Amino acid sequence: MFHRLGRLLVTFYLHDEAQAIERLVQSRHIDENRAAVQVLGIAYEELGMGVATNWNFPEQIVGSMRR
User: Fold this and answer.
1) What pTM does this model have?
2) CA pair distance 19, 26, nearest whole angstrom
3) 3-state SS class at 56
4) pLDDT tens-digit profile of 7-59?
5) Where are the alpha helices (DSSP H) in 1-67?
């Protein structure tokens, strides 16, 4: 359920960065996480896990977010 938390946060709160990531994906044909690292300096997965940890999600849920 929370695997896409990082991507959702970027989409809703960092609109310009989300558009830059999408442009990289389209123009360079790279995957979304690699583009996210180039734009944000962090992968969606790590961002989502970091936010979940900060929001005091149980460790079992945070750990399950890793693919």
Assistant:
1) 0.87
2) 11
3) coil
4) 999 999 999 999 999 999 999 999 999 999 999 999 999 999 999 999 999 99
5) 5-13, 15-28, 32-40, 44-54, 59-64
